[in-house]
Hints:
The complex is a heterodimer. Chain A is mainly alpha-helical. Chain A contains two helices and no strands. Chain A has one domain. Chain A starts with 5 loop residues before the first helix and ends with a helix. Chain B is mainly alpha-helical. Chain B has eight helices and two strands. Chain A: Component of the F(0) channel, it forms part of the peripheral stalk, linking F(1) to F(0). The b'-subunit is a diverged and duplicated form of b found in plants and photosynthetic bacteria.
Amino acid sequence: xxxxxxxxxxxxxxxxxxxxxxxxxxxxxxxxxxxxxxxxxxxxxxxxxxxxxxxxxxxxxxxxxxxxxxxxxxxxxxxxxxxxxxxxxxxxxxxxxxxxxxxxxxxxxxxxxxxxxxxxxxxxxxxxxxxxxxxxxxxxxxxxxxxxxxxxxxxxx
Amino acid sequence: xxxxxxxxxxxxxxxxxxxxxxxxxxxxxxxxxxxxxxxxxxxxxxxxxxxxxxxxxxxxxxxxxxxxxxxxxxxxxxxxxxxxxxxxxxxxxxxxxxxxxxxxxxxxxxxxxxxxxxxxxxxxxxxxxxxxxxxxxxxxxxxxxxxxxxxxxxxxxxxxxxxxxxxxxxxxxxxxxxxxxxxxxxxxxxxxxxxxxxxxxxxxxxxxxxxxxxxxxxxxxxxxxxxxxxxxxxxxxxxxxxxxxxxxxxxxxx
Lengths: 157, 254
């Protein structure tokens, strides 16, 4: 129960312990704690920023989507209009072409008819001439053939 | 064990330190040995953590050490507003060391003394805080630090002025000085005696319980041990907090 030299020994031990703690224990642990604090703060800030960015991106995506929708609607409208126009145009053209073709066909038919008539006439004339020749060769009996000649001439005229 | 020289003999035997030397130069070997071992344990554990300290995910040991360090750091920051490299590590050392001293109280009272007697040691007192030398070593070291910081912060004249001119002004100088001396001396004495008294009494109760019949012992020993978990932690905490308070007072200029 008495105070004695143990006191001095204990004080030396105590000083040694405090010195060791001060030098080797406290600083690294506190440094680790501080570093972690900073890391956590940074992480939280980054997370918050990320969330904000997501919100912003969502907003942006919505606007872009809306714009795209509007644009596509516009494009579809234009395309429909253009298609209608094209249909109308081609209809008109087809009609015109048809008319033109019809006209051409008619003209050709007319021409061919005229040609045929001409060639027929030529043939008939040739035929008539040959017949006349032959008849002439065999001495025409005027009295006898008057009637035939007359008829031929009538036909030719 | 109770039979050796009756109950009184048993108690006295348990509270007698293993000592060498005469008079003032007596050394309590058990106190010195156990406090050194416990101090080594403390340093070893915290050093191993400090070496592997990472700011990433802490392991179990690091978590535990960090918990204690942060607890101490909070106490220091709450009370002490200056900047000091010493106070926080000092508080950590005091808290852990005193706690470990006190925790020796939780070991069965006869366990280590029995092993000691097998090794030929007649006496053994395992709780260093039941030795006044142990508690006074701490409180006197704190007292010297108070002295040191008072003079360092206020200057030698500031310190003398504070000792002589407060609280009643320069005209009551001797009275002031007397008050101040008592005040300053009361700090280490109350620190040391509080810890000593609590742990000595606690150990004494454990020894008394050990004298009871074996059937009754757990009935009383168990609640007392649980209660003592609180006491040993609280006493370590009080010692630490008062140290911080005294040192922050020493840093303040009145």
